[in-house]
Design a protein that fits this description.
CATH architecture of the largest domain in chain B: 3-Layer(aba) Sandwich
Largest sheet of chain B: 6 strands, mixed
Number of strands of chain C: 2
Radius of gyration of chain C: 20 Å
Strand order of the largest sheet of chain C: 1-2
Strand content of chain B: 25-35%
Strand content of chain C: under 5%
Shape of chain C: globular
Oligomer: heterotrimer
CATH topology of the largest domain in chain B: Rossmann fold
Strand order of the largest sheet of chain B: 6-9-10-3-11-12
InterPro entries (chain B): AAA+_ATPase (IPR003593), ABC_carbohydrate_import_ATPase (IPR050107), ABC_transporter-like_ATP-bd (IPR003439), ABC_transporter-like_CS (IPR017871), P-loop_NTPase (IPR027417)
Number of domains of chain C: 1
Number of helices of chain B: 17
Helix content of chain B: 25-40%
CATH architecture of chain C: Orthogonal Bundle
CATH class of chain C: Mainly Alpha
Order of helices and strands of chain C: HHHHEHEHHHHHHH
CATH class of the largest domain in chain B: Alpha Beta
Organism (chain B): Brevibacillus porteri
Number of domains of chain B: 3
Protein name (chain B): Heme ABC transporter ATP-binding protein
GO molecular function, one term (chain B): ATP binding
Chains: A mainly alpha (357), B alpha/beta (513), C mainly alpha (319)
Distance between the termini of chain C: 69 Å
Keywords (chain B): ATP-binding, Nucleotide-binding
Amino acid sequence: MNRVIAVFTKESFLVPAVAIILGLLTGAIAMLAGGFNPIDAYTALLKKVFGNAYNFGETIRQITPLIFTGLAVAFAFRTGLFNIGAEGQFIVGMIASTVVGVSFDLPAIIHAPLAIIAGAVAGGLWGAIAGYLKAARGVNEVITSIMLNWVALYFANWVMNAFFIPAGKQTSEEVKDSAIITIGWLAEMFDNARLHWGTLIAVLAAIFFYIILWKTKSGFELRSVGLNPHASEYAGMNVNRNVVKAMFIGGMFAGIGGATEILGVFHYQAIMTQHTGYGFDGIAVALIGGNTPFGVILAAILFGVLTFGASGMQFSAGVPFELIRVVIASVIFFVAAHGIVKMFIKPILKKKKEGGN
Amino acid sequence: MNSVKKVVEMRGITKRFPGIIANDSITLSVGKGEIHALLGENGAGKSTLMNILFGLYQPDEGEILINEKVVQITSPKIANDLGIGMVHQHFMLVETFTVTENIVLGNEPKNGLKIDIQSAEKAVEKLSNQYGLKVDPRAKIQDISVGMQQRVEILKTLYRGADILIFDEPTAVLTPQEIHELIEIMHNLVKEGKTIILITHKLKEIMAVCDAVTIIRRGKVIDSVLVKDTNPDDLAAKMVGREVNFRVDKTEAKPKDTILAVEKLTAMGNRGVNALNNLSLEVRAGEILGIAGVDGNGQSELIEVLTGLRKATSGRVLLNGKEITNQSPRNISESGLSHIPEDRHKRGLVLDFTMSENMVLETYFHPTFCKGGFLDYGAIDKHAAKLIEEFDVRTPSIYTPARALSGGNQQKAIIAREVDKNPDLLIAAQPTRGLDVGAIEFIHRRLIDQRDQGKAVLLLSLELDEVINLSDRIAVIYEGAIVGIVDAKSTSEQELGLMMSGGKVMQGGGNDE
Amino acid sequence: MDWGLILSNLVHDTIVFSTALIFAALGGLYSERSGVVNIALEGMMIIGAFTGAVMTYAFQDSLGAWAPWVGFIAAGIAGSIFALPHAVASVTFKADQTVSGVALNFLAAGLSIYLTKIIFNGAGQTTTLNSVFNKFSIPGLSEIPYIGHAIFEAYPTSYLAFIAVFLTWYIVFKTPFGLRLRAVGEHPRAADTVGINVKRMRYTAVMISGMLAALGGATISLTTTSNFSHNTVSGQGFIAIAALIFGKWHPMGAMGAALFFGVAQAIKSLVQIFGLTNYIPTEFIFMLPYVLTILVMAGLVGRSSAPAALGKPYDTGSR
């Protein structure tokens, strides 16, 4: 528990908090430059999210995949790897669950879990490709995982076009009811917002993340390899195997995210013209969350609110949706360059100290 | 010496780093044509002071006079302009560049837009000949010996017209013969009107070449004396702050069975050529076998092969008669080998792990600490507390990250962990590098204890004194092979030095290939 | 089938598609030779493609055929300005250079479309440009059968790219600036001790990098696509990084690698021309450049030629 509390200690909490404020300010500047009123826009964003039960439920729906992709990126980070491939892992998770969801006819108690496991394994293997290339060939995982994002996109479209999409259509058949994980009664409470069991699975995944990293032998190795591969090798750990393992587990998180998105939200897979964006936002989620599971959940809530609310901003304040991408990018930037952030918080910290004396 | 013009005067220099005062109101005065030693232990503040003089750091207080004029040295460039040059301990040379490129860097002669490399090479050659340095201007740094690289560093300062040369621990990486040649070069430099400041912790060197010496301890000047008025014991006491005995007390070794046998071991180095060539040696229970050699003759590769971090291409390694050649580090460690790595930050510790976690870095999977895949932190913490107590590791708590500890305490922690494994063979690589005298004494004591308990100890060190003092037998490594094994009691530095340089005195620069 | 013509077409298209990669890889070269990892090439290309298209759009009515030149130059300026935050983060604030680069990539993707929507009334892409670069036939040489079409009927930007390769080689390996640039990337402390301002060198290198990558981006919107949208650049910045690594951080090597990756894209159009799409799913053709990049990276052995200080912030006060 100490570590969870540690999230709130001065710097690890203040830096992301200030980075978020700076990101929102950057967004505000971009809006002013574009001739918009940032206060109106951000108000519209919040109104959209908290305006009614449906939208609030949909925000939770939006938060769920971000927890998964955030965990995917954070887990790899803990092992010293930068997993930019959560997007691709998410996509292959989507296809795998669609394939299982559409192709089989099984009792719900087996079908839905099987479809989710298929997504997990697919995402895990997709991540493991980048991990393997890093371990066996020394290839920078950043570049391979980015390339794999594109490969996943076109691969998904091919699988769908070739096997699952009837001629002339843009979407696959719906998955069987037995594979669907929507929570009917909860959805009704939220005016038919698309709520599903995936949200609970996401929270469980975060707990799994914590236990595996900080309570088990495997986690000891993964963290050790992440912090100092040379010392880990010296201490008899297999660095390469841990790299692959970390990318596999990270990919699994993203893959489950993709699966629950299909099984809980869309129930079918469509031809994609571009990436979903969840994998990319997961990077911001992981960084803001300090690569801790609890932090990831908090950060996912924040970015879920921002990305879902952005559509309200576009609708009522006329601000293009992409503005929120500018905000998220700036937040990542400020977390990376935390020296800039510290410059801003220095006076605050100083005052606090003086006040204390 | 008061009649001589003062070329360097540093007055009341204070420099603070977070948590420590590296220099506390230091005053230093060097006369023209003098070889002035700056003596102190590791971490005493010598390098900080010289980095201030060279413009790499700014002092928080105090003033500097060069040629009796007050100056502000805010960058190395200004130091260069004032005629101050530095021969760094870790050479400031770009490995992939040629000698000439390194020397002219920052002051390139131009021909139109291009660097005029021909005239630069001529200038380098001329300087090299003037001071008898024998450097090949066209050789690449990565292809020449360490001694040659040091001469390139000297040439760099001369090319920039330096009159005041700072040598930072220049002998640390040299063979005794090369040290001899360096001393010659220093005398040549002084003859040509240069002034030299020599940073060192070696008393012998001071007695051999210096005119005056300033002793620094914990950031403060203890004394400044003429070499002719002092003696090594006096200097040692002033440096450490108490009487020290550099001889290690130990009883006669009682060697028993062979623990480690290395037979005709060959392995590739990082450059793709053989770093070990048919190397053979034996270490017996109850003895310390020291390996002496110039850095880069296969020492690191030997340890890596023995510990499983590097693959041997041929030959065998036997531990207690059992073959461990090319086994995994884990298997070798479990077979009874412990290893104090030469780079404790790179290999020895996970700096961001707690001390507690670091103490089980190699044993976390043992049933004592791990049950059913889950770690038993209670047992891990108890184990760490015990070791830290036993080996007097000064840490605020067992949950403190290793990063926060001093070098000496980090090293003690590693030794605690390695000794606790109760190994048959303990490999100690550069076990005292960068530590102060107190920690060095502690570590030497522990290594001898291990020997007396009947363990085999393999010691690798670049400090020849350390090897001679600690070892029972000394094996000399040269170009990846053992060129001779001698009795530590009856050998001399000269004998070892000759063997370390392959039986002949190294000379001339130039390309290896 | 006239194989000579097919080959001639292939080379011709390869040069078209390699141009952007060459510019971007050279951009990466300056930055990485100075020791700053530049994974933001993608974003810099996006900014270049966007600025090039918008400025050309703004001037095409008044300047006609000169408008793309204005767009091209403006792209270079915009790219070097856009690179500035990467330098600030990496050099001054010692940030993780990869994370900072990723942030800039996202920023470019978001900002460019945000601005496009504002300028073009909510449309996610610019209108198709009337005035873009036209291919320029070198008199005489372009008459040579096959070879003429293959090499001497290219966009002016392609010729510029090859000139940039030669210039970069000269600058990096023959001039004092180049020697200092490489020293800073190999051993910044050594450079510092001889009076070279490491930070200034790195700032300069990152900004040159931004300029060149943006020029590369602009060559896409001002030659092949004639507009700017979210998928104008689509990963070519990362392929350029792969080309740089494949080319061992050498201008000639990077050019060779860029041409190699250009072939993958040229094959794409060739396949479409020959109607092979009936046999090979289009998705696989789209995948080709990315798969090829992965394969090439996996096939490389060792990375010893990377600048020694690549990715390491330089701390003047470090002890």
